[in-house]
Structure formats: C-alpha cells, structure tokens
Fold these 4 entries.
Entry 1:
Amino acid sequence: MTVPLKLICSKADLAINGAVPAFSEPLHVGRPNIGDRGAFMQRVSQVLDSQWLTNNGPMVTEFERCIADHLGVKHCVAMCNGTIALEIAIRALRLEGEVIVPSWTFVATAHALYWQGITPIFADIDPTTHNIDPLAVRRMITPRTSGIIGVHLWGRAAPIEELQAIADEHGVKLLFDAAHAFGSTHGGKMIGGFGMCEVLSFHATKSFNTFEGGAVVTNDDELAETIRLMRNFGFAGYDNVIHPGTNGKMIEMCAIMGLTNLESHADVVACNARNHAAYAEALAGIPGISLLTYGSVERNSHHYIVVEVDNDCRVDRDQIVIALHAENILARKYFWPGTHAMKPYRDLFPHARLMLPNTEQVAKKVIVLPNGTTLSNSEIRTISDVIGACVN
Ligand code: T4K
C-alpha cells in the first residue's frame, strides 16, 4: 500500500499541471496476489528435498487434481503458460483453415492460431459486455471455418449457449479462452466444463497465479489424454513416443505457488469485490465515466476494473491515461487497439475494422485500473479523484 502524497480537488492539483505526483511508487494493474508465504516456503523445501523439479511431478499432479475438483471438471492438464495451453488445445482439436475469435481480447488468443498456420477471423463484440457477439460470429462463418474460440472477457462468461448452437449447426468445434475466468460461473456452473475444452491462464497478473502457468480443462477423456501426450513431446513412458508433441509442462515450483494461492483465492476475490464496490462509489457522478459491473447473479473474480470514457465526456480516454500515468498510476488501455489492428493482422485484414464497429468504439473508451489485495481504499479514492479532476 502506498500513501497518496496529496489531496486532489481540482485540475490544479494534477501532476500534468505541475503538482507533485500522487504516488511516489508506481501503482500497477495486475499486481500479483501472493498467498501465505510460510506455506509456500514449506512447500519449496518439500520440492527441493524431493529432488523432483518438473516432468509431471507430484506437486503438479496434486495441483491438477485440486483445480479439477475446484472447477468440477474431469480433467485438468497443467501447462507452462496459457498461450501454450491454447496452442496445444487448438492442435489437439485439429483446428485448421479459419477459426472465429473476438478481436477484443489479448493478442495471445489470435497468435495461438496464427502461429500454427490457422487464420483468425475476427468477430465483433457486444458493446455492453465486451464479449463476442453471436450474430457477428454467424456473419463470419465460411466453408473454411473449423472452430470458434469464445473468450470470457473480464471473467464474464461469453454467450456460451448461443455459440454452442452455432457450432452445432455448422459442425465446427467450440472451445473457450478462459484466461480471465478462473472461479467465474455461468448459470451457476463453474467455468471450465463448457465447449470441448476451456483454457486457463495462471499468469502472475491474473487473480490466481502460479508465477507463469496455464491449463486445459475438459470433461473429454480422449481429448485430455491427447493433450497430456502433446504437453510432453508425445511420450507414453520411457523411450516410447506415440504422438507429435512439444514441451508445455508446468514445473513443480509453479504448482506449489498454485496450491498455496488456491488456499487464499476466495479471500482475493472478496477483496477485489470490495475494491470494485469502492471504485463504483468513488467514480459515481463523474460525468462521462462508467464502470463495468458484473452483476450479483454469477461469480466473477472482480479482478478487472474496467472504466469506459463515454463519447460525450469532456476529455478523451488518452488524456485521462496520460494524467493517471503522471500520478504514477499505471492504468492500461487493454486491449487497445484491438487484435485486428496489430501486426500481422492489420496487414492481413486491412479493412477488418469495417466489420468491427463495436470493437473500434470500445477500444477508444477503455481504461483498466489497478486492483488486487495490496490496493487500499485511499488509493482507490485518489485514483478516482484524478479521473474526476481531469473530467470536471
Ligand atoms: N488469453 C487472454 C484473454 C489473456 O488475457 C492472456 C494473458 C492469454 C490468453 C495468455 O495467457 P498467458 O500465456 O499469459 O498465461 C499481461 C500478461 O502477461 C498476460 O498474461 C495477460 N493475458 C495480459 C492481459 O496482461 P502485459 O504485456 O500487459 O504484461 P505487463 O508485463 O505489462 O504486466 C501488466 C502489469 O502488471 C504491469 O503494470 C506490471 C504488473 N506486474 C506484472 C508482472 C509480470 C507486476 O506488478 N508484477 C509482475 O510480476 O500482459
């Protein structure tokens, strides 16, 4: 926790106008949530004593069992990160040709396809939820479409049933990028068991982390078996390779970070939810600023504090971000400018934006603010006051 160095009442109090910055140290989006150090250190000793550091060790096996139980799925295959997990899932499902994805996501969703010679086809989003729009998906289906990747953006479930109906109708495969959605629910059911499989990220910046890490979770026995083989070069026992594969293994140190953090994840979520409510209160009434909310029906980790700067706001989004950075508040513009506008996709599809009006609009409006267990109420108040002073 950093103590704000000043009160912000008007524009004159802002660092962009010559005042001292509100914080002497940077306030980051994506500060890792770290569980009980004592428990972690004890496990470190256990791993070192065991002399088993990687290659499907006992900690990874225990971690996989805990995650599968937690999410109520049959299989969890832990990986070194979420991107490799996506790549392996995509390959195990034999996707090819074209796969429909939202552009409004972290670039890894599209890269995991492109890296394997598959063309990501970008579908537009619903501007209120920021999730892929099923009608837009329908428009992008061609004879070359082999799959759809729904992304549960900001931890809110993608329109699962609608996407499943499209996939069934066209005989294409559906999987989910659930990188943001660890612990989220849909229809009261934990994210993890939808589509043919779901892919999690346990990166340091996620609400639940294993330093780096990821997993494919699925109820499909055969798919899980194939993914397990692919994660470890295709080995089925000593000297016996029965499948093409790569190295996607999670190491024991990452697994123990996960086991430790799982013990406090509920506390992290509760803290994030309190922070979200504090932001809602502090930002209320600032003209042209709206905070995305996740409702109370489904579970959400409340990890992402997403603010939209409306078109009629007196200042634009970029000016607010510049002002926040000047105060040492390192807010982000996730996922500006949209994957379709990044290389190589902007060269591949120079006119993609014409099919992505909502993505283009949202990309101009979004600011993601700091959250996590180390953030205090007074920091939230100051961050909101900076935004208020910019706008008023
Ligand atoms: N699909 C989706 C929808 C995703 O969002 C992601 C990852 C993936 C797939 C792929 O999963 P992984 O392969 O990553 O497991 C960050 C994360 O690196 C990335 O995992 C995440 N999404 C994405 C949304 O955010 P960057 O390039 O913005 O990271 P960076 O280094 O700028 O860090 C973000 C902030 O967090 C900074 O302000 C600093 C702070 N930070 C970061 C780290 C690593 C810390 O305070 N401590 C740390 O240890 O991508």
Note: The longest helix spans residues 252-283.
Entry 2:
Amino acid sequence: MSRTPEKQGELFIVATPIGNLADMVPRALDILQNAQLIAAEDTRHSGKLLQHFQIDTPLVAYHDYSDAAKLRQLLARLEQGATVALISDAGTPLISDPGYRLVHEARLAGIKVTPIPGPCALIAALSASGLPSDRFSFEGFLPAKQGARTAALEALALDQRTLIFYESPHRIEDCLADMAAAFGEERPVVMARELTKTFETFLRGTLQELIAQVAADPNQRKGEIVVLVQGYRAPHNAPDITEAARRVLMILLEELPVKQAASLAAQITGEKKNKLYQWAIGRSVDP
Ligand code: SAM
C-alpha cells in the first residue's frame, strides 16, 4: 500500500537589510510572502519592514529567551508541515541576534533549515575594510563591564586573525581605549559606521589615531558601529611565546622592570627567561 508522504515543514533563516531597504533580496521577499508564519525578534519593528514590502504573513515574536512553550509551539508548527521564516531586527538572524535555540532544536527534530543569505554588518564591514580577510574572528559585543572587557581583549592580544567586534556608540570611546591598552596604541584598526546608510563612514588608522578622531568628532559616536582590528603581528625578531606566558608577562611588566618581569614569568610559566626578555623588549619597541 502506497502512502502519500506527509508534507515537510521548513524553517527559513532570512537576512533583512541593515539600513538600506534596497538591500532586501528578491528570494527573501518571496519566502516571507509565502511562509505560513514569520517569527521575528520584535514584531513591531519587523511589522514596519513587512508593511513596506506589502507582506501580510502572520507574525509571532521569537527570541532565544522566549519561554519554552513558545519554542515548542514553533517546532510543533514546523513538525505539522508549516513553512516558518525567522527574521531579526536587521541583518542575518543568529549573528548577535536571536535564533540559535530555534535552529538547534529544529535540526535535532530533523526539520529542514534553509538559509536565505543577505546583509550582515560584520561581513559588509570586513569586505570593505582593507584589513586581511582570509582569516578573521567575529567576537560580537564585548562585555559592558570594563574588567571583563579588558580580560576578553587581553585573551585576543596574540590572535593573528582580523578581529571583528560590534559596539554601541555610547561605549565606543571606552572600547577603543581598552583595545589600545590590550593591543598597543599602534595596532591598525578600522571603524565602520552606519553601513549602507546615508552617513556610512570608514575610519582607518592606528588605535591611537582613531581614539583622537572619535574624541574630536561627536558624529563618530553616533549610529551603528563595527570595529575591526588587525591581528597580532610579531614585532621584528621577537620570539613566539605561549599565550599563558604572554599574559603573565604583561601583568608583571606593569609593575616590574623588564628583566625582573621576564625572570619571574619564566619561573611561573616554564618559558625560557631569555625568550621572554626578548619578547618584552621587542614589544616595547614595536607593539
Ligand atoms: N544580525 C545583525 C547582522 O547580521 O549584522 C547584527 C545585529 S546586532 C544586535 C546589532 C549590531 O550590529 C550593531 O550594534 C552594530 O554593531 C552592528 N550593525 C548593525 N547594522 C549596522 C550598520 N548598518 N552599520 C554598522 N554596524 C551595524
């Protein structure tokens, strides 16, 4: 006896514009128009976008902190064969935006999940930054508290990949200052602001230069911002040391002369004293 296969539900992860509505891709419009349900981070915000494109698909709120019942309801709809589109306020869902729990659970339940690619601030910023794009690490938003932020930056100080951060305008000055402390004032950085919008701006320079530019121009403290930092480049002739040794040495260098700091760091970490000394000297000449 042949059975008609049950209709399969499908979850579409749909990217939406990050400022310029002309960036909405035709395939996204088609999916949003024809889905049975759109799950959105903020239904009021997304309602305006959908209204602009004359899409009247029913909207429900979803974020990763939604109660378990909400998540189960969405999964149940998918399991019953519904087509659901997930969108966030802007850009690609799940990228510093809700959606991870839903996609994870949908995959566990064997539901088909399909991406509809489109705008994403980090990729737009990287593609036009002029910084190496072959290897990069997206770090999202740094912690709001300075201690945690400094610790997070310190842990990245020797990372050779281009580092990409989202940052809010009211924290940008503190963020750049903490980056200068962790990475050295000479580290090249790019600040991409208001991408795809009227006041799109790319500032490029060393951390020291950008700190001065942002302090001098209040407009640079407005809007939406992506900060991209060039990865660590070993100073000329400086030896490679382990991340643990670097961290210990950096702490000791704040309190002690180089020789003493290198000697103590060697005892603590087992790294060679001379190597640490050479690294510290190289670092102080060319951070
Ligand atoms: N899901 C989004 C994406 O795909 O890029 C990111 C959402 S996250 C909540 C918002 C942050 O992304 C902003 O604070 C800013 O750092 C960055 N961002 C979003 N739109 C931007 C734009 N037009 N220009 C620069 N940065 C933007």
Note: The first strand starts at residue 10 and ends at 14.
Entry 3:
Amino acid sequence: MYSIDLSGKTGLVMGVANQRSLAWGIAQPLAQAGARLAFSYQGERLKPTLEKLTAELSSPLLLEADVTDDASLDRLFEQVRAEFGKLDYLIHSVAFAPAVTFEKPFLETERADWITAMDVSAYSLVASARRAAPLMSEGGSIVTLSYLAAERVVPHYNMMGVAKAALEASVRYLAYDLGPKGVRVNAVSAGAVRTIAARSISGFADLYSAAGEMSMLKRNITQEEVGGLGLALLTDQLGGGITGETIYVDAGFHAIGLFLPKGSEG
Ligand code: NAP
C-alpha cells in the first residue's frame, strides 16, 4: 500500500476561518499523515472556532496574526520557531478586497482599495515566505491559493483577479529565489467553493452554479479535492519535482475555450 508518513514534519496554516475554509481542507490530510500544525488567525473572535476545529489534532498551536502588520508576522514566525524549531510546510490561504471592488466596475477601482487588496492577498505571501524560509532549514514547501480570475476576466472579481495575478507571479519569483534552498513554492488554483470569503463576493451564487454546469466534469469541486492537491504539492514524496507552478483543481473549467448554448453541446 502507498502511504505517506509525515510524522516529525511541521506546518503553519494561515487562513482557517471555519470548517469550510480551503486551508482546513489542506490541513486535515496533513495532520492525518502525522504532521504537527500551527494555525494563524486574524482576531480573537476566530479563536473559539479554531479551538473546536483543531481539538482532535495532536498539540496544535493557535497563533494570532494579521498579515498586513509586519510586527505581527515577526511575532508569528518567532513563536513557530520557538515551538517547532523548524518549519517544513507553509499554507498561505488568505485574501481580501474591499466589498466595493466586487460591486463597481474595475474601471472605478480606487487607489486605497487596490493597495489593500494587493497587500492582503499578494504581498502577504512574500512577507510570509521571507519569514518562513530561514525556518525551512531542511528544505520545505509553500502552497498558496489562487483563482482563475488571475488569468481570465471573471465578472465581479475585478481587483481580486488583479491581486491573484500578482500572487501567481510572486509564486514564480519566490520559487526561483528559494529553489537553491530546496524550498518549493506553488499555487493551487481552486474552482468555486462556498466559503465565507467566497460568499461575500457579489454574484458568487450565480458564478458557483454556472461553474458547476459548464465545467468539463459537470459539477463543482470539493474542499477535499483542494486538500488532496495541496497535500501532493506540499510533500516531496508526491510533488517533489514541482515548483513555480499554478495547478488548477476546477473540474476542467479553466481549459474550456468556448461555451455552447444549452442544448447544442456535441
Ligand atoms: P475563508 O475560509 O474565508 O478564508 C479566508 C481567510 O483569510 C480567513 O481566515 C480570513 O480571516 C483570512 N484573512 C483575511 N484578511 C486577513 C488578514 N489581514 N490577516 C490574516 N488573515 C486574513 O475563505 P477561502 O475561500 O477558504 O479562502 C482562502 C483562499 O482561497 C483565498 O486566497 C481565496 O481567494 C482562495 N480561493 C477561494 C476560492 C473559493 O471559491 N472559495 C476559489 C479559489 C481560491 P478573517 O475571517 O478574520 O477575515
């Protein structure tokens, strides 16, 4: 039987808000394979949810951190170093853009909203990877979460699409810088999944059902499928040769060039 044993490995998971979070989908198989995990959350209000969610895991570490605050990130990685001594995996699953950027045309994007979206959704990967790298003394793997709007126009995504484009480019540059240290950096580009962040995007319900109907597999994807790809990219045993890559787990939606009107599919 092919099995993965991650005992002795450590990971930091950034961006679990609840049991539907994509980061939680990746954390579960990692923990089941034996990795010890730390979780960072933004604001004390999320702590009780995380405590409940992680109650079954072995000695999870719960740490507060706001990715827009350098001092907060310094504290986070220092706490990880003090407790774990080293880090093998970093899961970056954090994004935000002001609601107005999903509601108004992209043309009307204000400077401050652009900066906020880029800071939380793209620069935070660079800021986190920079602090994680010194802890990855035995090599390591970093995975972030992206979306098709980085490459194609998806109505409403606007500024988030631009931030995801910056995120995917950052993955390539970070992979180049960290490759010689044996640290791989990749993005999982997930199809639509009903999470808190997704539901706050205006028009998400329509986009979710359209993606399900139009994808090659004629369905939406699951959190477990995101978790499976995340696990593969994180572990050298499965994803060892992959770095600087964005891989889609979206039931084939991204690869379709033309959608035929209903009833005329060949
Ligand atoms: P989620 O459960 O709401 O997770 C988003 C996380 O980002 C939350 O934990 C949120 O914390 C955190 N966050 C936002 N601003 C932060 C900050 N300044 N500092 C620290 N954490 C912050 O939603 P999700 O869908 O799993 O999103 C995770 C990632 O997957 C995002 O990058 C998203 O763009 C990507 N993605 C999602 C989908 C989808 O359809 N769901 C598809 C493709 C890609 P708070 O709750 O405290 O704000």
Note: Residues 15-17, 21-23, 42-43, 46, 66-68, 93-96, 120, 145-147, 190, 192-193, 195-198 surround NAP (CB under 6 Å).
Entry 4:
Amino acid sequence: MTVSTTVTVRVPAKVNLQLAVGPRREDGFHALVNVFHAVSLFDEVTVKEAPPRQDFGLATLTASGGTRVDLAGVPLDATNLAARAAALLAEETGKGSPVEIHLDKRIPVAGGMAGGSADAAAALVACDRLWGCGLPQTDLMDLAARLGSDVPFPLMGGTAVGTGRGEILEPLVAPGRYRWVFALSSRGLSTARVFGEYDRLRPDAPAPRPSPAMEEALASGDAASLGAALTNDLERAALSLRPDLARVLAAGREAGALGALVSGSGPTCAFLVGDEDSPKAGGIEAEVVRALEAAGADSCVPAGSGDVLGATVV
Ligand code: ATP
C-alpha cells in the first residue's frame, strides 16, 4: 500500500427518509429505526503529517467553509469529532502519529444532516490511509459506531436502515435517483434539546417500527411514492422549538414538492422535488426555491441522491 503524507477524503451529508423514535433506553439513547440516505452535499477532510509537538497532542485542527456554513459552532480542539476519530484509530492500532486536520465544510453545522459524524467517518478513512493501518471496512464500521450512532452511515453512503440506537446498519434496495432542495437555517438546533423535547411531548412513545411503505417506495424508485412515505418522529419536537419552520415546510409543499420533512433533528428542512432525470423536476425545484426564500428560509441548496458514495479518498 502507498503511504502518502497528505490524504483528502470527501464525505456526504445525510437526510433521514424515515426516523422512528422509541422511548429513551436505560443507557440514555433512544431506540430508533432510521432510514439514512446520502445526498450530494459534501465536506472534505484533509489530514497531513505534522511534526511532533508536545503541547498539541495528536491532532491540530483548522476549518474553512462555504458562505452558508457557520464555522463558529465547530470546535477546533480534541472534542471535534474528527479529532476524536483520529485519536480512537491511533489508540486501537498503535500506529498514530501527529496530524494536521483541515475540515472544508459545506454540510451545515448543527443542521440535522450529521456533518460532524460525516467528518469523523472521513477522518477515520483518511488517517487509516495516512498511517498505513489498512483496516478492513468492518473494523472501520465498528470504530465508527463507538464514536456515535450517525458515524457508520457516512462510511457506507447510498441508502441504509439503522436500528438499535441507529448504528446497526443494513443497506436497502433503492435504485432511484432523486433531486432535493434543502432549506438551511443560520441558527443551529441542538440534537440533545430536540430529543429532550420529544421525550416531553411523547412520554409514551411506542417501540419504533420499520415502514413497509418506505421500503416499497425505495424499491420502486418512484419519487412520488417516496415523497408520500417520508416521516420523521422528531419533526413535532423540532417545530415546537422552532415554530418558524412550519411556514417553510408548508411553502415548499404548496410550491409542488413531492414530500417535505425536517431533516433529522433539524433545523434543515428537506424537499423532494422529483426524479433526477425528470424534466419536470427542474421546474418544481425553481418554484420550491422561490417559495422557500419568500417564506424566510436563510438559504436553499439543491442536491442529488441515490448514487452517492460514502467517505472516499480523492
Ligand atoms: P446530527 O444530524 O447527527 O444530529 P447535526 O448535523 O445536527 O448532527 P453537527 O453538524 O454534526 O450537527 O454538529 C453538532 C455539534 O457537534 C456542533 O454544534 C459542534 O459543537 C459539534 N462538532 C464536533 N465536531 C464537529 C465537526 N467536525 N463539524 C461540526 N460540528 C462538530
């Protein structure tokens, strides 16, 4: 295997097509059925060999981002999920050496699109290559699950259902390719707060179940069926904390979106506008963007999905 001194990994954001949330478990996590779907909105994580410096530990971090990304919420210390991923890999393999990690972020921060988890997955892949560890994908997936429930999926990409606390992944048959518009919000929403609000609103939440309608819609590749099957149990809690998002969701639906939902714990809202190859999707996309901007969305980002790879060395 070639060992390089700099490695860059591109990693996608996710939208949850179905998020069914059960009651809080004894370990503090919630039982989930979580259909993850990778979308073509990417962060790039670059790791570079650094000279040993006693005062900085294993990793030093820098970050850059597009105009829509608020970098103020990204910690540049050992608590960053990318730094934690590097530290875990070093500990497990004994092969770690000091690295500079640069995060080029396009995934909104605290936006419900798992940007931090994506960076952690990318850092695992990048450091594995930089340090010449050569871990098999299954071992990287195990380390990812130890870092967080949302970290394994961005290693995999495509479409998958997560059970347990969301970290036990099974790929789903999903041959369709779709177009989306994401309405981003300049203020993030804390995932922990949204789960707390969910517990308050649903103290009697039943055990989460897979949705046959979702699995059939994905297998058929039909955008209208997929739009009708989108569900997110956290949506009510997110709207309770951010009532302004209800107007954004309604505006996108009225403008012709085939389906709309809060992405994960929000505040990003996702609008399915059609099949990737459908000539109609372009028109719906333009209408939806106009309506979302008029309804007060801070910015709108189009993205594709259906054939989006997980964390990949570029
Ligand atoms: P999820 O969809 O998994 O709930 P999210 O997309 O809502 O996550 P993230 O962008 O992953 O949220 O960030 C959540 C918090 O994690 C941030 O507010 C920040 O404090 C912390 N964090 C740690 N590492 C990172 C990172 N690499 N990028 C962004 N945030 C990070």
Note: The chain has two domains: 6-171, 178-306.
